[in-house]
Amino acid sequence: SSGINAEYGVTIVNGEEEAGNPQCAKVCAGTTGRSSTSTVHHSSDSIYIDVDISSCGFVKIPTITSSIEGNGGHYRATGTSAVYNATTRQFRLYVVNSVYTNEGVGNAATRLRWNVEWVAVGYTC
Question: Which of the residues 19, 47, 55, 106 has the least number of beta carbons within 10 Å of its own beta carbon?
Answer without folding.
Answer: 55
